[in-house]
Amino acid sequence: MTPLIWRLLAGRTFAAFATALIPTTLTLALVRTGSAGDLGLVLACELLPMLLLLPVAGVAADRFPARRVVLVADLVRAAAQLATGCVLMAGPAHVPGLAALAAVTGAAVAFGTPAARTLVAAAVPEEGRLRVNSRLGVATGLAQIAAPAAAGSLMLVIGAGWSSLLTGALFLLSALTLGGLPVAPAPRGTPRASFLAELRGGWTETRRHPWFLANVLAHGAWHLAAGLLLTLGPLIAVESLGGEASWVVIAQAGTVGMLAGVWAAGRLPVRRPLCAVAFGAAAQALPLTAFALRLPLPVTGAAFCCAMFGLGVLSPLWETEMQRRIPLEALGRVGSFDTLISFAARPLGLAAAAPLAAVTGTTAPLLAAAVLTAAANLSVLLLPDVRERPARESAFALR
């Protein structure tokens, strides 16, 4: 790999690990207050600005150099986390202050997410993007696994405040690594339109890609289903599959599957990437069905492993196809709609799971989610654009 690619991977890994530290640190810090409402308030204050600002952030990612947007977003997140660390170290958790800092963090996440995708497209030639996206997927997956354990260890040994300070330091490293990343300058064309005009232009560009809209809505279905599964799955595992240890086994099987899928995505001879994406997303119906029917632990663990393998394959292929099919000058705005649906659908599933289960039991919502996930994602195969084979197939089979 070239030094530029190493630098890109290092910067994104720092940011991924830092991002994964935040929810565990806040959860462990606020659980001491004894109020679930405090934790819900702080997490909601991070989520809402993220959702509201994503379309605006997409315009910023296309309007300004992506590395500068990433730099500012990482610096803001670093400042917010360093301040959070100071608040936590000062004494009992000050919920209003933590909520305000969480809102700042959420806003910075909104601006950093589409810009990071655009930065990869600007820095990496098309033939190397799948390889880079696969390695970014492995790094992100490992970060999501390691961060909760790291946050918990820091909390027990030296306190939650130090965990937030470490998070801020990691965002600083990401800013220093990615902020000055040498990329080719964007071609100069016609003068830029107004901000609102570019926002409308992003939606116009999005509608020009039926394959994108169909997939984004289908992905929203499985994110919604994932919210149900992550809420009801542990309850079913504890009650029917052998106790708390059974959920740990299932979760670890899923982790293995996801990492294997991300690793395999760049090595499988995929001829129609969006078809693989559709099947990978539809595989999320397997664990939903297994939990709904209370299938034995080995079967449920294997189903979850297969589903997470599909998700691992899906992620880098989807990123690479977006970067290939959508013009670079519109990638931030179009991609922000993808992120918006993903960020919004999963919390909706998390929130709806318990009320639905209280009324209908756990079986009906999980089976309905399984049918919805499979139908929504397999139906995109009816679109000719989804079945398209890339002109440069070498980009989807690493030699």
TrEMBL record:
Name one matching Pfam family.
MFS_1
Where in the cell does this protein reside? Cell membrane
* Molecular function terms, GO-annotated: transmembrane transporter activity
Membrane topology per record:
Multi-pass membrane protein
Q: What is this protein called?
A: MFS transporter
What are the alphabetically sorted keywords of the record? Cell membrane, Membrane, Transmembrane, Transmembrane helix
Zinc-finger as UniProt keyword: no
